[in-house]
Amino acid sequence: MAARETDRPAAQATQAEPELELLVHGVGGTTPEKMLDDPRTVRITGDDTAAVFRRADHTADAPAGQGPHSEPVQEAYVWCNLTSGDGSRALWLLLLPFMVVNLAHWMRPAADGRGRTVRFYGLLVRLAALTLTVLLVAAACEVALDLVAWQCAGVAACAHRHSWLGFLSPAATDDGWWSLPGRRLALAASVPAALTALLWYLSHRTWSAYESHRPMSRDPEPETDGSALARPGFWYGRRLVARLRAAHTAAGLLTVAAAVVTPAARFDHRSGGPAALDALSWILAAALLGCAAAVVGVVCRRGRSENRLDQQLDRHLVRRLPLGALGLLLLTVLYAGWSRPGWRSAGRLPGDPAFGGLMLAQGLLVVVLIVVAHDLYRRHPDRHAGMRGLGGPAVALLACALGGVMSGGVAQRVADWLDGTRALLDGPPVLLTWQASAIPPILAVLLAVAAHLALRTARLARAERDRVRDEHPGEPEDPSRTRAIAQARAMATLTDRAPLVIAVLAATTLLLGAAALAGALATGQPPEGAARRTYDVVQAVAETSQTLGSWLVGVGFLLFVTWARRAYRDASARRTIGILWDVGTFWPRAAHPFAPPCYAERAVPDLTWRMATWTRHTGGRLVLSGHSQGSVLAAAAAWQLTPSVRKRVALLTYGSPLERLYGRWFPAHFGPRALTALHADVACWRNLYRRTDPIGGPVRLPGDSGPQVDHEPLRDPLAYGRTPQHPLPAPILGHSDYQADPAFARERTRLLARLHPDLPGQRPVPGAPGS
Question: Where is the chain membrane-spanning (predicted)?
Fold first, then answer.
């Protein structure tokens, strides 16, 4: 049974003001027993998904927030089940392209007074996200409708090799009911339609777990130089996600309908076809275009509302748009299934123009996005921003490329599996084949970048050895110990090389995408004369790369299935998969509704409600203590507090990626001006980090006045050799166990002292850390 906290107004507080330390863990999760260093813990509030815990003795002796022996009460907020609690979360890996494009929405450069440009940036990302949904469903249509139902089932030899296709083959069933091409397409359409329904279900199922948790209602604050994370409606995107979900679901169903109706309409448009079917095809085409225009209109004009808590829902839009698309799909299925004498499946379905148009549209959107992002950056340049403000376009490009490579690889792998080595089928569209061929070159470039980083890290590790020796004068040198410390420091710097990796990968992807589009256009038009030999060599290399890419996709799929199965049985594997989403799913679903859900839409309101209610009931002050990703949640929760409550909160962050990752890649929300405003809003802030930490780092506030936020780098390990305090070798902690350093307790005590300006504090010692 959860313990109940006694309400006590501030006026009735004792002379010793209650003090609380609210701990927030980082990526990977942990247990409340480990966070509180006590085997007996009690849940104060929350549920099995996320909850606040206390030590049992603190709950019994200090219901109002005062621990025994005048120590601050500690509470642990455990949120790991939001991302890694269930084995089925492994399936979220399928939504990786959607998650990546959603990140691009939040990676825009900071901009003041450029509201229209910012909205145009968001519009471009939403349109790119829409093309990803269409691409994924179109790839499913290519596999199910074209490769299986049209090509393989229409060739007797291929259908004979796969007995489960026998009832669809005209030769095997003597022109049975399902053997007609239109009916085969109508039956196969159930596969991409089911995929669309699955995406809708996954997005809708997470509704109650995330979007339904409303933040605290409060009046909006006047516009400042702070972060948009302080706005009342930032962590409540229920209305937007519902709108986008309706639009993307309708887009997926319309894509399936278009794939079904196009081949039947092409047959009916021939001379001598039934006039009624010909007229019906034009009516269906007009209805599909009209519904598609409605979908694009919804995506274009429906943005986020952050300045207020928007609790309304567009129920008519959310229901009618997908139902209208579903109705059109059913009509196209009935139209395609009509008997057409003389219609036989031959060649491949006309998918080349569709995939080419999608790829061209994505390329144009990314180019315009680059121009807009550069315009925003040059007006307010920030030297700390990753890739000079072009991180968002680069990530959007990688999302589109990831979707294209996955689509092309899967289509080519299925075609190879159906056909074997008999060359019975025409295979997938040429563009998808060329996209599959991009996988080996991309892997080669990544290996080259990895080799470059490995050499650079080795050189840096050799240089660090001299620094490690200089930091421990008079101690006997242990070469292996020195190498281990130097290697840990050098490896930690790899995080700062992420812009190089993203830039090289984005540039390579852009070049390979252009080459794939050019190669698809040139296929089937071999030159004459001397250029023919060069053309043949390029074709041979491309075919080899396509085959290798196809097999790599197959191997990757097997690895994915193996990893997903392991996640059902192994808690550590679930935790590993959860770590992948702790960073990628921090942000709300503002661009793609089928992205994995935003856990911060539950965690941030939880923390905000706990801090606000505790300070109101007890009149006390608290230290908000966040490790790693927990420090990002802590900062977001502090921004959501009212100004009067913020002044009663001290912020202690350690191993924090606030500036090192979020400040560089999301400058509009965690840039220098936003973090400076946070420092001014809370009562006090202290940040701890180590040079061996690959994730956490200094905050580096510009023009920091008064007490400094960043502590000097903590020693890691705590002792170089054996000492009376450390008779056994001290471990290299890196990103973990910051509480083991004596500086942690010392800085927490100082923060609590600074929360009481009416009480005399300890006079800082000149030259001491933090003085």
Answer: 120-140, 185-202, 246-267, 279-300, 321-338, 358-377, 389-411, 431-455, 498-522, 548-565
SS3 (DSSP) at 299: helix
545: nearest Cα among 402, 400, 408, 399: 408
Q: In which band, very low, low, confident or very high, does the pLDDT at 317 lie, cut at 50, 70 and 90?
A: confident
Q: How many domains is the chain partitioned into structurally? A: 2
Q: End of a domain among 342, 376, 400? A: 342
Q: How far is CA 745 from CA 707, 733, 748, 752, in A?
A: 18, 17, 5, 11
Structure tokens at 40: 């007996």
User: pLDDT at position 326, please?
Assistant: 95
**305, 384, 472, 718, 720 from 493: Cα distances, Å:** 38, 16, 22, 20, 21
3-state secondary structure (DSSP) of residue 44: strand
- Give the model confidence (pLDDT) of 649-659 as tens digits: 999 999 999 99
Banded pLDDT at 529 (limits 50, 70, 90): low
d(CA 48, CA 39): 18
Interior angle at CA 378, CA 695 and CA 122, nearest 5? 70
Burial class (CB in 10 A: 0-12, 13-18, 19+), 651: buried
- Say which CATH number the domain at 14 has: 3.40.50
* Angle of the 238-268 helix axis to the 115-141 helix axis, nearest 10: 50
And the tokens for 358?
A: 């999608």
Question: Distance between CA atoms of 740 and 628, rounded to whole angstroms?
Answer: 16
Other Cβ atoms less than 10 A from the Cβ of 637: the count is: 30
Q: Which residue, among 278, 276, 257, 279, has the nearest Cα to 267 in the 3D structure?
A: 278
Contact 600, 634 (CB under 8 A): no
Phi, psi angles (nearest 5°) of residue 507 = -65, -45
Residue 425 covered by a domain: no
For Cα atoms 343, 433, 128, give the angle at the middle one, nearest 5 degrees. 95
Q: How far apart, in whole angstroms, are the C-alpha atoms of residue 155 and residue 170?
A: 9
Which residue range forms the structural domain that includes residue 319? 181-214+230-342
CA dist 283 and 261 (Å) reads 11
| pTM: predicted TM-score of the whole model, two decimal places | 0.87
- Tell whether 770 is covered by a domain: no
Average pLDDT over residues 608-629: 91
Of 421, 419, 431, 433, which Cα lies nearest the Cα of 154? 419
pLDDT confidence band for 578 (50 / 70 / 90): low
Q: What's the rounded Cα separation, in Å, for the pair 605 and 49?
A: 14
Is 576 among the domain residues?
no
Q: How far from the centroid of its chain's Cα atoms is residue 513's Cα?
A: 23
Backbone angles phi, psi at 231, to 5 degrees: -75, 145
pLDDT at 613: 92
